[in-house]
Structures are given as C-alpha cells and as structure tokens.
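Reviewer 2 asked us to include a model.

Predict the structure of this chain.
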Amino acid sequence: MTVRMFLGHDAVPAIAPDDRGLAYGESLFETMRAHRGAVPWWDAHMARLQSGAARLAMPFPEGARMHAEALKLLDGADGVLKLQLTRGGGVRGYAPDMEAPPFWMLSVHALPQKIDAADVIWCQTRLAAQPLFAGLKHGNRLEQVLAATEVRVAGAVEGLMCDAAGHVIAATSTNVFALIDGQWCTPGLDDCGVAGVMRGWVLAQRDAKVTMLKPADIEQADAVFLCNAVRGILPVRRLGTQRWPRMHPEIRALQSALAQSHPGFDPPREAS
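Predicted model (structure tokens):
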C-alpha cells in the first residue's frame, strides 16, 4: 500500500494523535476504481464527499490539489484509490475546533479478485437508524465490520443487512438491486445505509424504483445484483436456499453499459 498524508495544504509524515477521525470517527471516505492512473468517476466521488463534509460542517480541502496528488500517487497504475477526510485535530472533547485544517490521506490498493457472481448470506447484524448520517460514507463502520465477520465465517462473498425493523438496506460494502415483477427495485436510504456512487449510476441508467423491501422480496426476485464503485455490478448467484443459476440478460446489459461508461470495468463474458 502506498500512502500520502496532508494537513490542509501541507504534506505530513503521520496522522496526529489528536485527530478527530481517530478519536471520534469524525471522518468521511471514498473508494474509487482507478484505470491507467486516472479516476474516471472522480467528479461523482468528490460531489458525494463534499456533500458529506457540508452535512457534518467539516472543512473541505482544495479539490484540484486532491486530484493532482491522487494522480501523482497512482503514477499510471490500475488499482483502488482510497481518500479519507477527517476534521483534523483539536481540543479533547466532542465539541470540534471549527478553525482546524482538515486532515486527508490518499492510499492505493490492489484491485479485488474478479468474480462473475456472488454467494450471499443474510447477516444477523442490524443497521441502526440515524437519518442525520443516512447516505453518507462516514468513518463509523462497526456494524459493517461485525457483518463482514459473519460473511467470512460463512465462506460467502457478501452479506445483506437489514435495519432494526427488518427492512433490507444494503450489503456490507455494496448496494443491492432486485428485479421484481419486471421492475428493478432498490432500498430507500432515508434512515441508514450508504448512497453509493455506483448505485447513483444505475439509477440514472434504469427506471429503478426506490422502495421498502423485505427479505422475502429479495429471495423471490427474478434477479439480484450488488454494486459498488470498485467491484462494479456483481450478480448474486445464491442467497440461502435461493439460486439464480444464470445471469439475467438485463444484468448483462447493465454490465455492458458500465464498461462503456468506465474503462476500468470489463464487459461481461459471453454466455456459455
């Protein structure tokens, strides 16, 4: 992993001990798929990051500087670019220093192993409702950490998560879409969950319905896929006892459209 860290405009060698992202999770982050040293969806990621910073009343670094440093760090490579933003340092206690410069960190990671379809489980860990944070990709991810442990123990690829009321929200690190009676549907994120950049792209491509979904709706769907900005569109092959043995043609069409929109994603393989 290659890392660069900054406090405001200045490069720094390490994160400060009083950083509020470290102390209180007062942070946001983006994970982006890079292709040949470029980040094709940089603007979409920055729009979400800036929106989150505004909602949390956090200072925002200069966008052009972040972009330039990201391209320098990538140095022509493919990979996963992660950008973390915190409020920076300040006095001890929950009340922030509103004048402190923001801390931001760029890191480059290997791409995940490519798979054609996913075996998925239902996670027992539930997502708590907090409308003030709904949609944000903030640094408080303990629920996802616990759920991801469930996924690993089960030997699955991903795990679907519900809120306390039993409504489906998302998977641990992906959003979910289900084809129900000819209509693509995805859960609403009014109380919790992350509004993914890839989710936004899919919503712009298809007349998908944002609605309340129960586990039975997912299990009885004609097709299901997961998506995020690193893995792209990942068909679900198995969820518990339910199986979808073949990729649905509409998922294949979405994957083809994605490959045209973002050069880092390959078109789907020909059906055998």
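The chain has two domains: 2-109, 118-261. The first strand starts at residue 2 and ends at 7. We have added this to the supplementary material.
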